[in-house]
Specification:
The structure is a single chain. This protein has about 500 residues and is α/β, with parallel strands linked by helices. The protein is about 45% helix and about 10% strand. The relative contact order is 0.08. The protein folds into three domains: about 100 residues, no CATH class; about 230 residues, 2-Layer Sandwich (Nucleotidyltransferase, domain 5), CATH 3.30.420.10; about 45 residues, no CATH class. This is Transposase Tc5 C-terminal domain-containing protein.
Length: about 500
């Protein structure tokens, strides 16, 4: 059996769960701790094994001296665990005593192993007799006897758990495997938990404390399908096929990318980058003339709809530095296009400084504020718009260029409302950058889409409401939000009302 050091096991467990806060200890937690301790105790410790191995080495050495290599009675074939019978420890002890002693006194000459076998039929060979002697001398039941005890105890617990419906009590069910991993996956997960903690403690938090929350920001890219809908629908129980209606199959496989910036004090920069997928990777001259112009959208294009290094540098120049503090720190992930410090330094305006912090690879889902909390709400709002368009059969083709720009402009404008500062602050809190949890708040989707009364009418035209503006608090129907009252232009608001 493999030897262990219990101290190492406990240390690894502490590293795996170091981020959990301490709380009151409950009975079921004590029971789980006892089970884990029982598993650890079932393994031989390093000291146990060392004592056994030293005794075995001495015995085998004496055996090699006393047994000639030509002795036909000597067998060196090791025991096969699959075919070996489980021999009780007391049985081994009796055999060893019979071999060594006679009437309680040491024999002047030990019996031959064949003589011992004549009485103890379960002794297979000479080597095994010396191993039994080593076990008896060490007093440790570290072979099959111990496994037998563990097996019997585990079997009893398993039968008891099955009879008591253990899985139902502990809310354990059969689930589909969503990811297949190798044995090294757990070790990688431990590294991914240690690296973010070190990054937060040694790099991010010192800069946050020195430069203040207003100067500490995060920016991230997020991809959106050109047509984005909810993946659920109401239907009858047992329905095997649930189709969902869309405007374009092509729009469900092609995407575009946004990049917005938030700060730790709860602000969102008033302009963001939107990269659309275009043939040739750029807008044509006629398209640029007639393309929808939103005051808060910096529109660019690429052949894939994803950002390249050139797009990132343009974002720094037009969407970050004009709105950043004099001495700012920006958190970015480890994408290759965002790590060219020399090219970025050339874009820094006179009188401003920038500290670029790169989040460790693989840790963005844990400590990137935009990724941890913000974009989930953003995409939920986009689904609200596009689902309403399909439900009411509205004449809006959401996957068209101008409509994508308008939709993202509305969403960005709502996120910029001071009303939603707490949700941006919460994104930094959830990612671990500060310890003060914001007071209870409503998210953008909760306030804008879920807080309107069922009997409330549009502020302008008295038709059924669609959303409430996070700035002016007015309830709006879809048409007044999208086209404006009497086609005066889409609802882009900056008049904040508490």
């Amino acid at each position: 059996m493999v030897k262990i050091n219990p101290s190492n096991v406990v240390r690894l467990l502490l590293e795996a769960y170091v981020r959990w806060e301490k709380s009151d200890v409950y009975d079921h937690e004590r029971e789980l701790a006892d089970n884990i301790r029982g598993v650890i105790d079932s393994y031989p410790t390093s000291t146990d094994m060392q004592e056994f191995l030293e005794a075995e080495d001495q015995l085998l050495s004496s055996q090699s001296l006393s047994q000639p290599s030509s002795d036909s009675s000597y067998h060196s074939t090791p025991e096969d665990p699959k075919t070996m019978n489980i021999v009780d420890f007391e049985y081994k002890k009796k055999a060893v005593l019979y071999w060594r002693e006679e009437d309680g006194q040491p024999r002047q000459k030990k019996l031959k192993w064949e003589s011992v076998r004549a009485r103890y039929k379960q002794l297979p060979d000479n080597t095994t007799l010396y191993r039994w002697a080593a076990l008896v001398d060490s007093g440790q039941k570290i072979t099959m006897e111990k496994l037998k005890v563990i097996f019997e105890a585990t079997q009893k617990r398993f039968i008891a758990a099955r009879n008591e419906r253990f899985k139902k009590k502990m809310n354990i069910v059969s689930r589909k495997v969503t990811k297949f991993v190798t044995r090294s996956y757990d070790d990688e997960r431990v590294d991914l938990k240690v690296k973010p903690d070190e990054f937060l403690a040694l790099e991010a938090k010192p800069y946050l404390e020195n430069r203040g929350m207003a100067a500490f920001g995060n920016s991230d890219q997020s991809g959106f399908l050109r047509e984005l809908h909810s993946g659920r629908s109401l239907t009858f129980r047992g329905e095997r096929h649930v189709p969902g209606r869309i405007q374009s199959q092509n729009a469900m496989t092609h995407s575009y990318t946004i990049q917005s910036t938030i700060t730790c004090d709860g602000r969102m920069f008033p302009q963001m980058l939107l990269c659309l997928q275009e043939v040739g990777g750029k807008f044509g001259p006629q398209v640029e003339k007639i393309m929808f112009d939103a005051p808060n959208i910096h529109a660019m294009a690429s052949s894939s709809g994803k950002l390249t290094k050139a797009h990132v540098l343009s974002w720094f120049e037009k969407d970050y530095f004009p709105f950043a503090e004099k001495d700012s720190t920006i958190l970015l992930d480890s994408r290759s296009g965002q790590k060219d410090q020399e090219a970025i330094d050339k874009l820094i305006p006179a009188g401003k400084t920038l500290r670029l912090l790169t989040i460790p690879a693989g840790a963005t889902s844990m400590i990137q504020p935009c990724d941890v909390y913000l974009f989930r709400i953003w995409k939920s709002g986009v689904r609200k718009f596009e689902d309403r368009g399909m439900l009411d059969d509205l004449p809006v083709i959401f996957h068209q260029r101008d409509n994508i720009i308008e939709l993202q402009s509305i969403m960005h404008n709502q996120f910029c409302s001071p009303r939603f500062k707490p949700q941006i602050q919460y994104a930094f809190y959830k990612a671990g950058y500060h310890d003060e949890r914001p007071a209870k708040f409503q998210t953008m989707t909760e306030y804008c889409f879920d807080s309107v009364s069922l009997v409330e009418e549009c502020y302008y035209c008295q038709r059924f409401y669609f959303m409430r503006c996070g700035w002016c608090t007015r309830a709006l129907c879809f048409d007044c939000c999208w086209n404006g009252y009497e086609n005066a232009g889409y609802h882009f608001c900056e008049d904040f009302v508490e």
